[in-house]
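Annotated sample (chain length 201).
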Amino acid sequence: MHLTAHVLTLLAKLFSGASVRWVDCQPDACQRVYFANHTSHLDAVVLWSSLPRHVRAVTRPVAAKDYWEKNALRRHVAWSLNTLLIDRKNIKVHQSPVDLMLREVADKHSLIIFPEGGRSNTGEMGEFKSGLYYIGKKRPDLELVPVYIDNLNRVLPRGEFLPVPLLSSITIGPPMWLEAGEPKKAFLTRAQNAVKRLKDI
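Output written by the structure step:
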């Protein structure tokens, strides 16, 4: 597992050419939820690979089970990155994706999530779904860290299998938290704006 993860890290960095900037945020192994815009199936792999080793060791990407369990290669990649796979098609009332994430996080792991849910075709960020809000509400101790990923949709365009080497960038911004009494819509708008602002930094 460790060897495969190391190889994936090297390949992700090679193909994405991703430069990483930490803005008012330190690469710390404390418990966090990194939330980012979503334009490519490479997003989770490249963002995870861009974290320092000691942070990667405690960080789990969250991804769609139906995509990552389609074949043996994808399953192996997901397993190697310790990915938390979410079943989008069979959501149970008493075991919501948020409850599953928080149970898996426990008091050790951080997560990488994409609040838009699906990938954007246009590069424009879609509305954030409510999961991030409920994570912040149920675990107010977790740092919520915005991330802007640029250009990965061109590294692996929709419908393509092989990535095209290009330069991309990842900007990791200052942590935020759900404010006491903050309405869901207001929080999700604030979170989305926190990601958007990183584009121009």
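Annotation: The chain has one domain: 2-157+164-198.
Annotation: The chain has nine helices and seven strands.
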